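Second attempt. The first submission of DNA-binding protein HU had a stray character pasted in from the spreadsheet, which I only caught after the job came back as garbage. Lesson logged: always re-copy from the clean sequence file. Corrected sequence (94 aa) follows.
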Amino acid sequence: MNKAEFIDLVKEAGKYSSKREAEEAISAFTLAVETALSKGESVELIGFGKFETAEQKGKEGKVPGSDKTYKTEDKRVPKFKPGKILKQKVEEGK
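This time the job returned cleanly.
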């Protein structure tokens, strides 16, 4: 599903009067989640899931075909853990 299709889905599910309102709702939600995660906070929507950050350790590796090695730095990455209700809905849909 692309963004335009998702906007249509949100418009119908949320009973918005226009696609613009639905798009604004999506933008507000994503901005709020981005803001919270960038501050190191998590966002938990009971039944749906939890958006959080996790520390990803740096890695050492070797470039294939050469003797060059590299190392990546530790970084914070976003994670999503689905909630029980979302898991059930996905299971029912298959």
